[in-house]
Each structure stands twice: as C-alpha cells, then as structure tokens.
Amino acid sequence: MAVNLTIVASNRDRLNIKDCLRSEWFLKSIQWQDYKDFELVIADGGSENYEEIKEYFENHEGQIPMRIVQHKIGDAFLRAFLNNFGIRNAKAEYVMTTDVDMLLGKDFVSELMGLVGTKYFVESRTMYWKQPLVNSIYDGKRDLYNNIEDCRRGRIKKRTTAGGCQCTHIKQWEKLSGFDESYIGWGSEDYDLFTRAKKAGLKVRWMGEGLDKIKLFHQPHPRDTKKDLEYQEKNKKLLSKIMGFEANPNGWGGRKD
Fold this sequence. Notes:
The protein is an alpha/beta fold. The chain has helices at 21-31, 50-59, 79-88, 108-113, 131-138, 170-176, 189-199, 225-239, and strands at residues 5-11, 38-44, 66-70, 94-99, 102-104, 120-124, 127-128, 155-156, 165-169, 203-207, 216-218. The strands form 2 sheets. Strands 3-2-1-4-9-6-10 form a 7-stranded mixed sheet. A 4-stranded mixed sheet has the order 5-11-7-8. Strand 2 (38-44), helix 2 (50-59) and strand 3 (66-70) form a beta-alpha-beta unit. The two termini are 26 Å apart.
C-alpha cells in the first residue's frame, strides 16, 4: 500500500499495547487523525513484547496501517540509530520521526502535510504535560479529540531543543544520512539533525509556534534520571563538533552506503 507519509517512532520496552494507558493513547491519537494517507512504523530495539506488538498490528483493523520492525541493540538506548532504522524501512516519500510517548491532536498530520516539500524540514514544538493533567485525559475529564484547548496546559521547550517531530522528504534524509548515530540515549541528537538540515540548505518550517497552535503533546513517564543526564552531558559535547551536513560516513540505519 502506497502512502504519502511514514511516521517512525523508536521503542524498546516502552510500547505496551495491553496494560499501558500511555501506549494506548499514543496509538489512539495515530488512528484518529483526519488525514489518513500515512503509516506508522515502530522501530524496535529488542523489546520483550516485540512479537505481541507485531501480532497486534497485523490483526489491527484501523484505518492507519501500523507495523513494527526490529534491530536489536545493546544495553544503551539508541534513539538516533533506531530512528534511522525506521527511516530505512519507510514506504513513503516523506518521513516523520517522533516518540511513542507523544499524543497528536486530530489534525496534526493534516497540518504537517500542508507544510512539507522537497526542500523543507518541518519541526514541531512540544507541550510537556504533568501527570495530574494527563490523568484527567485518561479518565475522560478532558477531551483532547473534541476540545484540544482544554488540554493546552503545560511547558513548551525552547527552539534550541528542536522539536517533538522531524519531517522531510526521503531524499533529504538520505542526503543528511539520517540522525548522527554517535549520540547515545536521547538528547541533542534532534538539535544536531536540525543544525545539519540548515547546513544542507533546507528551509525550516515550524509547527506549534504559540500556545494556541500546539498540537503535539508529551506524556510523562518513568525515567532513569542519572543515566539520562550522563548520556546528555556526553551528547552535548558532540554538538560543538558538527562540521558539515552529512553524518555517519560508514553507513546508517543498519546499512552500509
């Protein structure tokens, strides 16, 4: 099935389709999009429930096709690598990367597709929710689908942290050689990509500029703060060493070029 857009989300042991409201709502927000001509690809790093997710996707009857691809990684989470692996497995001409902890307003993808172009790099600001507010959405006290204004309550990070999604044409992903796989864990790999996209001559378009325009939301989740900070400090040092726009000279996303 040909589609115009592939959404890639990296995962390892975070997407729990049976017992986790965070995962349930992420997938729900994918399925409720008013723009339908896209697919979801989960780029999995070796989750214990991989087969369960695969079977669920294969039997799912929603309008948006969903599939999972796997490339096992080591102990450290490698968001950059897994995103690249997902991009390598995309079927569409445009590819967007995001995370399985996100929630998308119902017209997020339609707005995104109104901004894409072969020379554009689309980013989105993200609103970070606190647990009490997200609980009220899970409990049905707030309705993200019908009343997004009632859910726009949280923290919006600065542009210097790039965005909660990155989208461009597949030829531009190939030109950039994807995310720089030198980055470990998560943190700074998105801003590195943002910087290199501009160096490559792409014009950046932003979504969610202003409280009343935010349509991408981050759900809170448990985290290993000590390990995250350790990786992020190492990653920040890599940002100062960006030379050109192309990364991963020996290949990317599990493939040699």
